[in-house]
C-alpha cells in the first residue's frame, strides 16, 4: 500500500513539474520566438531578415527538437526529425535562407510554436492543476475554515453540516491528488501527440524519404558490387598470382634439389619472398575490407592510428561515449580515411585537423586542412563515393572549400552508441 501511495505521489509531482515546464516554455520561449520569426520574415526585403531568419528558425528547431526529446522521455511518443539535409558545398546567407524557407518542416515548426501556447497552457494546467487544487483542499481550505466565520467553525455543533463539509473537503482533496497521478501523464501524452501532429514528417516527406532510400539502396548495391569486383581483381592479379608463382618455384626447387642444390636454394629463397609479399597483400586487402585496428580499438583508436600514419601533423579530438554499430562504424572510418587521403594527395596542406563526436543521436565527423581549397564533390572521385556510402545510412556530407582554402568537410551519421568508453577523449596525432 505504501509503495502504491509513493508511486501515485511521484506521478502527481512529476505531472506538476512537467506541466509547469511546458507552460513556462510556451510563454517564455515559444511566444517570443514566434514574434521574432514574424518580424524577421518581414525584414527580409530590408536585408536584415536574411541574417535574422536563419538564426530564429534554427532556434525554433532547437526548441522543437527539445520537445521531441521530452515527448519520447516523458510519454514514450517518438517524433521523427523531418528536416531536409543541409546541401553539400557550404551555405552562404542567401542560400541558407532559401534552404530553410523552402523546407515545409520550417513552417510547420512555426505553426507549432504559436499553437503550442494555448495547448500547453490547458494541458499543463490539467497535468499540474489537479494536484495543486487537491493539496489545497487537504492542507489549507478545511483547516483555514476552523478559524473563520465562513463555512463550518468551532461554534458549529459536531453533528451539524459543518463537520460533513470539513470531512468532505478532505476527501475531495485527497481524491483529486490521487486522480492527478493518472491525469498528469495522460495530459502530457496528449501534449506529445499534439506536437507529433505538427513536428513529425508529413506523408509527402515520408514519400520523398522512401524515394531517397530506394535511390541510396540502389547506389549502395552498385557500390557493393564494384567493391566485390575490386576485391576479386586484387586477389586474382595480386595474391593469387604470387601463390601460383610460389607453387611453381617450390616445384622447380624439388626437381633441382638433386642436380643443382644452389639453384634450388635460390628458388626457395624466391618462394619465401613471394610468400611474404602474398601475405602482405592479403593483409592489405583485409584492412581495406575491415581494418583490424577498428575491430580492436573502435572508431576512436582507429582514427588516431590513421592520423599517425600521415606525413603531416593532424590535430585529433574525439568525444565518443561508446561505439556505433559495426556497419556505421566502418562507414565512418572509411569516410575519415578517404578525406585524410585527399588532404595528403590534393590539398598541399601543412596541417590538418579531425573532430569526431556524438551528440543528439548523430555521429559528427569534421575533417579540415589549411591547404589550397577548391575541393568539389560534384567532380566525382573519392568524395562522391563517400557521399554515397554515408547516404546508405541516411548520413550527409557538406564541403566548404573556397579557392585558397581552408577546406572543411562535415559528415554526419545518425546512430546510437553502445558501451561506455575507456580511452582518452582528445590529443594530437
UniProtKB/TrEMBL annotation:
Its EC number is 2.7.13.3. The chain crosses the membrane at residues 12-29, 35-57, 110-135, 161-179. It catalyses: ATP + protein L-histidine = ADP + protein N-phospho-L-histidine. It comes from the Bacteria. SUPFAM superfamilies: ATPase domain of HSP90 chaperone/DNA topoisomerase II/histidine kinase. Residues 227-294 form the Signal transduction histidine kinase subgroup 3 dimerisation and phosphoacceptor domain. Keywords: ATP-binding, Kinase, Membrane, Nucleotide-binding, Phosphoprotein, Transferase, Transmembrane, Transmembrane helix, Two-component regulatory system. Gene3D superfamilies: 1.20.5.1930, Histidine kinase-like ATPase, C-terminal domain. Residues 21-199 form the Putative sensor domain. PANTHER family: NITRATE/NITRITE SENSOR PROTEIN NARX-RELATED (PTHR24421), NITRATE_NITRITE SENSOR PROTEIN NARQ (PTHR24421:SF10). This is histidine kinase. It comes from Actinomadura napierensis. The lineage of its organism: Bacteria, Bacillati, Actinomycetota, Actinomycetes, Streptosporangiales.
Amino acid at each position: 500500500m505504501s509503495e502504491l501511495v509513493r508511486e501515485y505521489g511521484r506521478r502527481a509531482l512529476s505531472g506538476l513539474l512537467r506541466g509547469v515546464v511546458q507552460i513556462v516554455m510556451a510563454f517564455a520561449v515559444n511566444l517570443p520566438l514566434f514574434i521574432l520569426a514574424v518580424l524577421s520574415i518581414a525584414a527580409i526585403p530590408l536585408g536584415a531578415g536574411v541574417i535574422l531568419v536563419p538564426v530564429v528558425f534554427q532556434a525554433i528547431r532547437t526548441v522543437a527538437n527539445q520537445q521531441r526529446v521530452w515527448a519520447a522521455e516523458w510519454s514514450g511518443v517518438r517524433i521523427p526529425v523531418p528536416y531536409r539535409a543541409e546541401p553539400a558545398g557550404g551555405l552562404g546567407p542567401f542560400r541558407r535562407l532559401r534552404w530553410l524557407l523552402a523546407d515545409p518542416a520550417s513552417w510547420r515548426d512555426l505553426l507549432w510554436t504559436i499553437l503550442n501556447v494555448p495547448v500547453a497552457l490547458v494541458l499543463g494546467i490539467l497535468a499540474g492543476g489537479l494536484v495543486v487544487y487537491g493539496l489545497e483542499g487537504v492542507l489549507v481550505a478545511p483547516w483555514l475554515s476552523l478559524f473563520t466565520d465562513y463555512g463550518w467553525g468551532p461554534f458549529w455543533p459536531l453533528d451539524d453540516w459543518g463537520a460533513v463539509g470539513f470531512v468532505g473537503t478532505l476527501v475531495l482533496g485527497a481524491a483529486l491528488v490521487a486522480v492527478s497521478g493518472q491525469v498528469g501523464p495522460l495530459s502530457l501524452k496528449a501534449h506529445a501527440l499534439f506536437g507529433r501532429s505538427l513536428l513529425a514528417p508529413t506523408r509527402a516527406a515520408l514519400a520523398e524519404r522512401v524515394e531517397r532510400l530506394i535511390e541510396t539502396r540502389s547506389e549502395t548495391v552498385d557500390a557493393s558490387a564494384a567493391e566485390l569486383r575490386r576485391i576479386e581483381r586484387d586477389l586474382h592479379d595480386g595474391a593469387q598470382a604470387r601463390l601460383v608463382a610460389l607453387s611453381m618455384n617450390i616445384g622447380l626447387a624439388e626437381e633441382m634439389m638433386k642436380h643443382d642444390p644452389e639453384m634450388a636454394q635460390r628458388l626457395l629463397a624466391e618462394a619465401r619472398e613471394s610468400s611474404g609479399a602474398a601475405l602482405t597483400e592479403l593483409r592489405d586487402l583485409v584492412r581495406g575490407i575491415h581494418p583490424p585496428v577498428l575491430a580492436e580499438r573502435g572508431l576512436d583508436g582507429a582514427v588516431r592510428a590513421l592520423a599517425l600514419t600521415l606525413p603531416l601533423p593532424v590535430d585529433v579530438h574525439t568525444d565518443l561515449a561508446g561505439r556505433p554499430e559495426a556497419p556505421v562504424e566502418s562507414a565512418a572510418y572509411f569516410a575519415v580515411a578517404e578525406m585524410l587521403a585527399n588532404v595528403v594527395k590534393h590539398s598541399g596542406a601543412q596541417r590538418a585537423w579531425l573532430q569526431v563526436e556524438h551528440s543528439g543521436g548523430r555521429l559528427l565527423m569534421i575533417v579540415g586542412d589549411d591547404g589550397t581549397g577548391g575541393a568539389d564533390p560534384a567532380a566525382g572521385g573519392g568524395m562522391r563515393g563517400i557521399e554515397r556510402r554515408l547516404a546508405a545510412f541516411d548520413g550527409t556530407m557538406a564541403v566548404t572549400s573556397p579557392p585558397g582554402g581552408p577546406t572543411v568537410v562535415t559528415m554526419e551519421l545518425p546512430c546510437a552508441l553502445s558501451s561506455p568508453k575507456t580511452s582518452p577523449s582528445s590529443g594530437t596525432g
